[in-house]
């Protein structure tokens, strides 16, 4: 058996066509004859949609350090099941990914797991401490070829350091991905600051703490002429600032998470910490603004902020619970459920694959499955209805906010360089 023939699949939702995957690439597309496909294993693509393999700009894989919550391998498997062929692994591990040694370790673990391409993100500052720049150049020159740097989980709040980081990465067209949170405005914060937090008596995380940093950073990016990426945009005000910055020609991109496209701060009323996340769930008008911004292109990409946590860190009182929720295995279903009508399949491919691949500098990813392209793709059944059962997720953690919830649209198969990582909706290994 050599290669895979996918029969009658709708590429980007278009007319049914055949795809022949061989030697890591799409060897033929359109009407593929029996002779050309000789020896290939056949998949019936009837009713399925083919998308370029998804690319996640924002994944926490927890290894090294918290292998009880997730490993590079378990997170890679969760990613493949979610339709991803590449993920950017955030630097807030233990030890922090702030040296060439640690980013190479993560990169190597990803390579060994072989389920998705794991692209390490390097820390901006030593130990995420916000005081000294990490060895950005050594990480860029390492085998991991780091191009994106982030202190995610923490904000690079010193404007002088942020400026220097932008200047440094400009030399090799790197990008600084900012977790926009003015820390002095979010001391002890537990949820979005607004009507619900006032009613519940929980300390608030005000929208202005995000917006103030984004406003500052787009001005710094303009001054330096470097690339800025804004992680998990969550407020309507942030959208206004990004729209202004883009009109001005500032080199800024932004991502939104599936949970900020779907859930609101009303979910905090049950005090279930599974809904505690940073930045926090906002209001319905923020959700509406984020959806519109994604359609308009003011927000460029959808990123999961997949944040696995061990049971003891999540199933406790709200105040003590760690912020964050699982995302990789549910992202596409949520996007299909909430945004397909507005974006179409091409728009989903743009915001979940092509654009994130471009932002992260992942040359092998973000290509439509056309002849000659790397065979990194996913097959989706847009009509399949499924219910999220936490115990069945591939992630080592269980902190999904969607337990028991049903979605339409499910990943059926994923291919990494022509090799299946998921078939019939199940991980191949
Ligand atoms: Zn973050």
Structural features, described:
This protein is an alpha/beta fold and 429 residues long. Helix content is 30%, strand content 22%. It contains eleven helices and 19 strands. The protein has helices at 72-81, 100-113, 136-141, 159-170, 195-200, 207-224, 236-247, 258-262, 284-296, 311-314, 331-360, and strands at 4-11, 16-22, 25-30, 41-44, 49-52, 54-59, 84-89, 117-120, 148-149, 175-178, 191-192, 204-205, 227-230, 252-256, 301-302, 377-387, 406-416, 419-423, 426-427. The strands form four sheets. Strands 1, 2, 3, 4, 5, 16, 17, 18 and 19 form a nine-stranded mixed sheet that branches. A five-stranded parallel sheet has the order 9-10-13-14-15. Helix 4 (159-170) crosses helix 6 (207-224) and helix 6 packs parallel to helix 7 (236-247). The longest helix has 30 residues, at 331-360. The two termini are 19 Å apart. The structure holds zinc ion. Zinc ion (ZN) binds next to loops. Zinc ion is lined by residues 152-153, 179, 231-232.
Bound molecules: zinc ion
The proportion of strand residues reads 15-25%
Give the number of DSSP strands. 19
Rg from alpha-carbon coordinates: 21 Å
Give the number of helices: 11
Secondary-structure blueprint of this entry?
Blueprint: E1 4-11, E2 16-22, E3 25-30, E4 41-44, E5 49-52, E6 54-59, H1 72-81, E7 84-89, H2 100-113, E8 117-120, H3 136-141, E9 148-149, H4 159-170, E10 175-178, E11 191-192, H5 195-200, E12 204-205, H6 207-224, E13 227-230, H7 236-247, E14 252-256, H8 258-262, H9 284-296, E15 301-302, H10 311-314, H11 331-360, E16 377-387, E17 406-416, E18 419-423, E19 426-427
Parallel strand pairs: 1-4, 1-5, 6-7, 7-8, 9-10, 10-13, 11-12, 13-14, 14-15
Antiparallel strand pairs: 1-2, 2-3, 5-16, 16-17, 17-18, 18-19
Helix pairs in contact: 4-6, 6-7
């Amino acid at each position: 058996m050599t290669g895979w023939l996918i029969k009658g699949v709708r590429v980007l939702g278009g007319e049914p066509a055949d795809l022949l995957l061989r030697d890591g690439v799409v060897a033929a597309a359109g009407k593929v004859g029996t002779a050309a496909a000789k020896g290939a294993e056949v998949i019936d693509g009837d009713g399925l949609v083919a998308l370029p393999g998804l690319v996640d700009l924002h994944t926490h894989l927890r290894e090294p350090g918290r292998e009880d919550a997730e490993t590079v391998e378990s997170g890679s498997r969760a990613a493949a099941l979610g339709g991803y062929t590449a993920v950017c692994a955030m630097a807030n591990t233990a030890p922090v990914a702030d040296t060439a040694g640690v980013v190479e370790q993560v990169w190597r673990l990803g390579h060994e797991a072989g389920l998705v391409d794991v692209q390490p993100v390097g820390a901006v500052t030593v130990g995420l401490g916000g005081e000294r720049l990490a060895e950005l150049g050594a990480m860029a020159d390492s085998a991991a070829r780091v191009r994106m740097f982030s202190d995610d989980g923490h904000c690079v709040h010193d404007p002088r350091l942020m400026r220097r980081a932008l200047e440094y990465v400009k030399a090799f067209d790197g990008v600084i991905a900012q977790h926009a949170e003015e820390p002095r405005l979010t001391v002890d914060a537990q949820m979005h600051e607004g009507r619900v937090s006032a009613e519940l008596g929980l300390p608030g995380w005000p929208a202005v703490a995000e917006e103030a940093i984004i406003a500052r950073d787009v001005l710094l990016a303009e001054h330096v002429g470097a690339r800025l990426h804004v992680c998990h945009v969550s407020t309507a005000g942030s959208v206004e600032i990004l729209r202004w910055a883009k009109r001005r020609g500032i080199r800024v991109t932004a991502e939104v998470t599936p949970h900020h496209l779907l859930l609101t701060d009303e979910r905090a009323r049950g005090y279930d910490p599974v809904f505690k996340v940073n930045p926090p769930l906002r209001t319905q008008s923020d959700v509406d603004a984020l959806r519109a911004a994604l359609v308009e292109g003011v927000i460029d990409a959808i990123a999961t902020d997949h944040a696995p946590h061990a049971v003891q860190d999540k199933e406790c009182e709200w105040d003590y619970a760690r912020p964050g929720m699982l995302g990789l295995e549910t992202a596409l279903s949520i996007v299909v459920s909430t945004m397909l009508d507005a974006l179409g399949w091409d728009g989903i491919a743009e915001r979940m694959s092509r654009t994130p691949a471009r932002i992260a500098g992942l040359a092998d990813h973000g290509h439509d499955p056309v002849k000659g392209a790397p065979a990194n793709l996913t097959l989706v059944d847009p009509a399949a209805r499924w219910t999220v059962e936490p115990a069945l997720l591939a992630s080592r953690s269980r902190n999904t906010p969607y337990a028991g919830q049903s979605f339409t649209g499910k990943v059926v198969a994923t291919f990494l360089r022509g090799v299946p990582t998921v078939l019939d909706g199940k991980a191949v290994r």
